[in-house]
Amino acid sequence: MSTRVPAVTSQVIAIRPGRPLAGAVTVDGSKNAALPLVAAAAALLRPVRLDNVPASSDVQTLLDLLRHAGWNTEHPVGDDHTVLVLPRETAPAPDGLGEAASSIRASYYLVPSLIALCGRARLPWPGGCRIGDRGMEQHFKVYEAFGDRVRVDDNGYAVEAGKAVRGTVSLVLPFRSRGATIAAVLRAVVASTPLRLGQPNLSPEVLGVLNALTAVGYPCRAGDRVLTLVPPSSVLEEDVPVWKVPGDKIEAGTLACAVAATGGTARIDGVHGPDVTPLVGALHRMGIPTTNEPETLVIHGRDTQPTGRPLRAMATLAPGGLDADFEPPLLGLALGFPGTHLFSDPINPGRHSNLIPQLVRMGGEITELSSTECRFTGPQRLTGAGVEATDIRTGSALMVAGLTARGVTTLGGVDQIRRGHADLPGKLLTLGADICEVTP
Ligand SMILES: CC(=O)N[C@H]1[C@@H](OP(=O)(O)OP(=O)(O)OC[C@H]2O[C@@H](n3ccc(=O)[nH]c3=O)[C@H](O)[C@@H]2O)O[C@H](CO)[C@@H](O)[C@@H]1O
Ligand SMILES: C=C(OP(=O)(O)O)C(=O)O
């Protein structure tokens, strides 16, 4: 049977089914952990060295924004993964940070650092993945709790430091927003004020920032109900602190789904075991054995014994729950497994409408119960088609689906995938996938 490949008008990734993935691959540093660590380094207004910085384009954009706003960055020749962040002796007052800041969601992490530098921040509305309405009102409530004045207009928002607050700043988040939790932590650092934050987000990305701050003298406690942070009693200035960006749990999870989809057996190195526990739990439920060691995840796809049990994959902000960014690649995998499965992402309400129509275009039979919840029965064998990575994780899911679909899957939107991963197709290639980039 011959397969028609759609005409290529801009760079696409072409994927064909091949042999089961095998071998070993090391994940890069995590984009979503690196972004707040870069911002935390900037907020300290002292040199900080970051190791294992990924080359994903969102992280590079944040570093560009920092340089534009008045920080220097240095890296050893030939080693882009090590970055020294340091404030300039005389920093220019940053003007509008413009288009680049509106191309990523995480430009919001710069607000506390800009306040530290010049008492105010003016930024355009953030961008990033188009996965539904992505508000910022909880960030603004955080800044107002610190006495800041917030103004918003059609183009963006401005936060201006008010009179310094005295004593502990105390507030409770209405839901466990990761962005608002980090905003509160970094604003407390800049204000040198104790913080007591109710209902914090306790994702590994937040804990990574708290560990980094603890290492430079900020006593932090992260409990399920309350997070507290206290300014250091004395400043530990002697050495340049070194913070290591943790390995990318989502990249590891995506690769795990890819290996499992092909029935392969492979090792994924560089990821902290507990960070992928919720995803590994889902793989076990489907009958895919894994070994989860402290810095390595092994997928034993060859020994899979599909259970046919229904999988309920519900993205949540609750501590220890399934990170919303695991849900799409897991959905791409579960389509090929027996059972009636229920998937939901109430956190990013536009994600399913990006992904599901494209899986349907590949022949997937998926019932959308609502805009955030869907059900399907597997196993389903998809057929390659021309599809689009409309957001980072839709791209990951379509890659996983393409590895077992009949014929060729061509995936556009390569830039979206690069926002989150320096080279995800290259890692799949290392594991033996039949995948290439096609540039017209
Ligand atoms: C750069 C980064 O780390 N992005 C991650 C972050 O996004 P994001 O910054 O959107 O995550 P939050 O946890 O802060 O927000 C969760 C949800 O609440 C909404 N919200 C948040 C704050 C606010 O003031 N108002 C509001 O409506 C957001 O739009 C989102 O829909 O967490 C998401 C949920 O785990 C992940 O999918 C993203 O990959
Ligand atoms: C949604 C994501 O990124 P961002 O929040 O930066 O748009 C993501 O990493 O999947």
Automatic annotation (TrEMBL):
Its main location: cytoplasm. GO terms for molecular function: UDP-N-acetylglucosamine 1-carboxyvinyltransferase activity. It comes from the Bacteria. One of its GO terms (biological process) is cell wall organization. Cell wall formation. Adds enolpyruvyl to UDP-N-acetylglucosamine. Transmembrane segments: none annotated. This is UDP-N-acetylglucosamine 1-carboxyvinyltransferase. InterPro entries: Enolpyruvate_Tfrase_dom (IPR001986), Enolpyruvate_Tfrase_sf (IPR036968), MurA_subfamily (IPR050068), RNA3'P_cycl/enolpyr_Trfase_a/b (IPR013792). Belongs to the EPSP synthase family. MurA subfamily. Pathway: Cell wall biogenesis; peptidoglycan biosynthesis. One of its GO terms (cellular component) is cytoplasm. Its EC number is 2.5.1.7. It comes from Streptomyces marianii. Residues 16-306, 354-427 form the Enolpyruvate transferase domain.
